[in-house]
Write a structure and sequence with these properties.
- The complex is a heterodimer of chains A (about 140) and B (about 110).
- Chain A has one domain.
- In chain A, α1 (about 15-40) packs antiparallel against α3 (about 65-85) and α4 packs antiparallel against α6 (about 115-135).
- With about 140 residues, chain A is mainly α.
- Chain A is globular and about 50 Å long.
- In chain A, about 70% of the residues lie in helices and about 0% in strands.
- In chain B, α3 (about 60-70) runs antiparallel to α5.
- Chain B is mainly alpha-helical and about 110 residues long.
- The longest helix of chain B is centred in the first third of the chain and has 28 residues, at about 5-30.
- Classes of the chains: A mainly alpha (about 140), B mainly alpha (about 110).
């Protein structure tokens, strides 16, 4: 990829298919990982926090944690591929959309509440991530 | 301490550990003679974070814990400022403030 968009949202018409797929997978993997991780955590004994050793042992007997580990690995590999093709400042605000998809999937699949407060919180975080990532990628003056 | 408060503390802790992991990996690119050391330190931070986040998930909704994970943006910026002397521009500062406010709002919903 040669000409890279300066601002997220710009030049989507020229987005290479490989990059578009990578960004889609980043959001999908984030969403799957977080909601399945939550499902896995719910399978731990109730005293998991006070008895971490027992919790760690029960993790070994839960195949769902294997899936969590696999998703973490896939997510890292996919993210590195995305960064091969795009700036972090372009990719990050787009994948931050997974804050919305995780809330949606957790509401439907896990029955978590969607409240106006949560929606406002996610909106503020999205705006913040957008501002954070649109600043210069390097500030130490070294080229 | 109630379970929700403990979950929120664990999420904040995870975000701080994430900050150390990122700064550690950045340090590895700056100090070639200690490259392996910093990579290992970063990886250990991530391993610890995965464990603590799993506990946090037993206590708090994932829609809240995942969004509050954005606090790592704040910890990365602060730790890079302190340890790597990177600057925080006005725009980035404003963004971090929005993330902080959003995360606080999410915590309040827990």
């Amino acid at each position: 990829m040669t000409a890279q968009p300066k601002l997220p949202g710009a030049n989507f018409g020229r987005l290479p298919v490989k990059l578009a797929l990578g960004l889609f997978f980043a959001i999908a993997l984030d969403t799957a990982l977080q909601t399945i991780w939550k499902r896995a955590a719910l399978s731990l004994p109730a005293n998991a926090v006070t008895d971490p050793v027992a919790a760690a042992l029960s993790v070994l007997h839960q195949p769902i944690f294997l899936l969590v580990g696999l998703l973490i690995a896939l997510q890292m590999i996919n993210w590195l591929k995305v960064l091969d093709d795009a700036d972090v400042s372009f990719a990050l605000p787009i994948t931050a959309l997974s804050y919305i998809s995780v809330a949606a999937v957790s509401a439907v699949w896990l029955g978590e509440a969607v409240t106006p407060g949560k929606a406002c919180g996610v909106a503020l975080i999205l705006a913040g991530v957008y501002l954070v990532s649109r600043t210069d990628y390097r500030t130490d003056g070294v080229s | 301490m109630n379970r929700t408060a403990l979950g929120l503390i664990l999420i904040v802790l995870c975000s701080i550990i994430e900050g150390f992991a990122q700064v550690s990996w950045k340090m590895s690119t700056r100090t070639p003679e200690r490259h392996g050391w910093f990579i290992t330190a970063g990886a250990l931070c991530y391993a610890l974070e995965i464990g603590l986040y799993t506990f946090a998930l037993t206590l708090v909704d994932v829609s809240i814990s995942f969004a509050m994970g954005s606090l790592s943006f704040v910890s990365v910026a602060l730790l890079s400022r302190i340890l790597l002397k990177e600057k925080i521009s006005l725009t980035r500062g404003a963004g971090l403030l929005l993330i902080l406010t959003g995360a606080a709002l999410m915590g309040d919903q827990a």
